Amino acid sequence: MMFLATHRDMVADEQLPGVLDTLHKRLREILLPQFREQLIYCDTERDDFVFTLNAAKPEKEDRECAEIIRECLSRGGEGGREVKVPLRWYALYQKLLEVANELGKKVLPRELCQQVAESMEMDDESCGEALNFFDGLNMLFYFPDILPQLVFMEPQMLLDKVSELVEETYHMRQGKKAVPGEKLRFRDHGEVTEKFLGEFESHYEPPLFTPKELVTLLKGLLVFAEMSKDVYFMPCLLQVVAWKVVEEHRVSGGKALALHFPDSGPLMGTFCSTVAYLLSPENSHPCPWRVVQNEAGAPECLHRNVIEFTVSDYAGAVSLIDHFTHFELHIHTAEDHEAELWKLAHDAVFAGLKKAGKTIGYTNNTPVPAIVCPAHPHPAKPHPATVKKGVWTCSISSKNFGKVAEVSVPWMSVCTSHSAESATSSPSSSSSAVPSTSQPPLSVSSTTATTTTNTPGESFLA
Ligand SMILES: [Zn+2]
């Protein structure tokens, strides 16, 4: 994990040390111990990890800093891998930008891109490869599996649509915006209707790109799950609830399946996409998942960090919890159904995680089945303990370990395909204290490199 501060030009030289101290202090406070181990330091003696860079008008030291960053990234493997591509791909990209500009469009038909490519003596296949390449660099967006007919020349426009929905729920909850009756389910349960999407008129480019295409796209990207005709559920709109509420949906006694992400914690979007996968009727997991509802048809427990499901026709419920450092699966049912339900829930959740990772484009975010650490019971925040050869090891302190037989783990014998016995990750060696923040910040778990825009009233390096 690397922190970059890219507005050095906005801080007077003599103030820089003070601003950096404040920034380091605040970041150290909010960084969970798990993530501290992965920090890339710019000054190990001083424990400094914020790389300052004036990217707008780089001077000598900025260029040196950029070179160090480049080296760090290439050591990290994939990030700095050199890829050789034909020069004319860049020419094609430039040409497409020009065409879009001339037409005043942010979206181009794929067919038109092909015509441009042909004029440069590129065949359809190379055109597709070039589009995929630039999509990978986020210079444009192209989704051949979901919306093969369109190329988005301005990636920001798509990101804006999603963030606008998030913003809207935020303002509604803050009371800054009136909530008409038909939008209560949007604010409280993350439900979006096609009519509602139509209100963001300025963002569409009919007839090429309308709310219909947006829905297809967001369903394909596991941002939406279709609940009924023209009604979509968007898990990332939900509100995070306090630990007290989460705790009510956990089963005590270490019976849960913890999903431990040894490399970096769960990356951003993984939980929401997995939920969208589980609730999408078109997915082929073995049985339908639904959100548990009360008699009035309202969800019993539907929050950004804890959701209660029913699985197939089984009596009982499955809670899926996002602790931001790891996930947990808890099953509430009579003992005679337990084994069967564990198998179904386990298989579906792993299928969802796999699909979510693939859809978001993460190559290195596979969880390992683990147990909830028995060494640090309540009131500590739960965290995983990895299991290997019948021994569990706390993921926070390897000094804490014990035999698995000492805790009852109902899923382990049932879920053979992902038995924790096959887990290969080594336990973490940190001796830091148990995390004590009640709501770990979202951004920390997802960051590989951070560049954040200015927030009034805060340090503008942050
Ligand atoms: Zn522990």
Automatic annotation (TrEMBL):
Compositional bias annotation for Low complexity: 420-455
Segments for region (Disordered): 420-462
Name listed for the protein in its UniProt record: Uncharacterized protein
Native organism: Geodia barretti (Barrett's horny sponge)
